[in-house]
Design a protein that fits this description.
2 domains; Four Helix Bundle (Hemerythrin (Met), subunit A)
Length: 473
């Protein structure tokens, strides 16, 4: 018992280990996916910063710097044309000044980097100086004060242009440095993401392999346990069958002697005949179970049993002990005769075990009734044994067909092998079995076996005596 308890505890422990390991595998997978998505969102945000801030800033500043140099060139040309008496148009100067302001305004509309606002103020101040000098040069040229215009062009404008260009260049370098910094951050995000994703995936794979090995080990252990139980049950059936043959033979001999001594006593003769029928069924049952055990729990090929005959025999045998307990047995036969693919002793053993179980566990129920129903279903025949007893609690119903399982506190004698025998015989013949029950509402045990064609009765041998006649002369 202690060994069985340890085995059950180990099975429960393995079950929880499998559940916990599976949960960790799922958590690792989901965690890796979620972490990868979070890192990817950070990378996307950094990439978006370059695309929407630093890159446009550099483009607008570079364009403004180019317009600044173009403004200086056009002012030189404007003063030269005016001083030589040729027309000096102001439209090109106005256009380049507008483009310079437009590029810088677009740049100022972008988000500012840390320490970038100081450069904004510097660029705006230097632009104002350049714009004022450009206006003064254009006014002096227009009024014919070429010497004044030339002086502003040579002495003041280059320094103002250089100061504005330096401020713009400093801002370009600041944005370029930020681009490099963000690129390093993106690469760091990529490496970190790959490290964690591969790490969590590796953990998931390792745990999945461990889970598969654990499940395989548990399955093999359960199969070995079931095989040992089956071998124990088959060995037990073989030993019991072998041991029962001797008392059955002795009982047959005693009944034969009784039958001979009861000549002329119809009642004794009837009782002896009934006893002989019961013993014949018992011998057939034992022989079939013994053959089944010797065959390694594999059905014998070609065995077919007529259901009606077996059911009638089992019910006839058990009706008397049922009536002693005040239990009525009712049989609902199929509409037409049916047969199943197994030995008659095997079918009798399965049905007898279920009926005996119903009778034995009827308890103190007020309504004491057992229904036996046989119903053909396509390629199978279904047998149902329903009682009005106390029923089974859910925890017992789940293990009702396991060997050595008995209800807690039961006072009915037994080893807990009756339903286990049903399970082994039904499984050995490619059948199905089950139970439907609720505490206090009775129980319905059922099993199904493959259907077969009814065995044909042996043909009668008719002997015809031919009269020999002498040949005609």
């Amino acid at each position: 018992m202690e060994k069985k308890k340890r085995a059950a505890d180990a099975q429960v422990g393995s079950k929880w280990v499998i559940i916990v390991t599976l949960a960790v595998v799922v958590a690792s997978f989901l965690g890796g996916s979620s972490y990868a998505e979070w890192r990817a969102s950070r990378t996307h945000a950094l990439t978006a910063e370059i695309a929407t801030n630093e890159s446009p800033s550099i483009l607008y500043l570079a364009a403004a710097r180019a317009e600044l140099r173009d403004l200086q060139r056009l002012l030189n040309t404007h003063v030269l044309l005016g001083s030589t008496g040729r027309p000096a148009p102001t439209q090109p100067l106005k256009q380049v000044r507008d483009r310079l302001r437009e590029n810088l305004q677009k740049y100022f509309a972008l988000p500012a980097l840390p320490d970038e606002k100081e450069l904004w103020q510097r660029i705006d101040k230097e632009l104002t100086d350049v714009d004022v000098l450009a206006g003064q040069i254009m006014e002096a040229t227009a009024s014919g004060h070429y010497a004044e215009a030339q002086k502003l062009l040579v002495d003041d404008l280059p320094a103002a242009i250089d100061d504005e260009s330096d401020a713009i260049m400093a801002d370009i370098e600041l944005n370029a440095a930020r681009v490099a910094q963000v690129a390093d951050m993106i690469e760091g995000e990529r490496r970190t993401r790959m490290f964690w994703v591969f790490g969590l995936d590796g953990v998931s794979v390792a745990l999945a392999i461990a889970l598969a090995l654990l499940a395989l080990k548990t399955l093999l252990r359960n199969e070995a346990m079931e095989r040992r139980r089956s071998e124990e049950l088959e060995g037990f059936a073989g030993r019991v069958a072998h041991d029962l043959l001797n008392p059955i033979s002795a009982a047959e001999m005693s009944l034969a002697a009784t039958e001979r001594g009861a000549a002329g006593n119809e009642r004794m003769a009837a009782l002896a005949a009934r006893g002989k029928r019961s013993l014949n069924r018992a011998r057939a049952l034992v022989d079939d179970l013994f053959a089944f055990a010797q065959a390694g729990a594999r059905p014998q090929a070609g065995m077919v049993s007529a259901v009606g005959e077996v059911v009638d025999g089992v019910v006839e045998e058990l009706r008397a002990p049922a009536l002693e307990r005040g239990i009525d047995i009712a049989v609902t036969p199929p509409v037409a005769p049916v047969a199943v693919r197994c030995a008659s002793g095997v079918l009798a053993s399965v049905l007898s075990n279920l009926l005996r179980n119903a009778i034995k566990h009827m308890g103190n129920s007020t309504r004491r009734h057992v229904d036996v129903r046989i119903e053909p279903r396509h390629d199978r025949v279904r047998f149902e044994v329903e009682d009005t007893g106390p029923g089974l609690p859910p925890e017992l119903a789940r293990h009702a067909f396991d060997p050595y399982v008995r209800g807690a506190g039961t006072s009915v004698p037994g080893l807990g092998l009756g339903l286990a025998t049903v399970r082994r015989l039904v499984e050995g013949h490619n059948g199905r079995y089950g139970v439907t029950s609720a505490a206090g509402e009775g129980a319905l045990f059922w099993f199904e076996l493959p259907a077969a064609d009814l065995p044909q009765p042996p043909h009668e041998i008719v002997e015809v005596a031919l009269e020999r006649r002498p040949p005609a002369n």
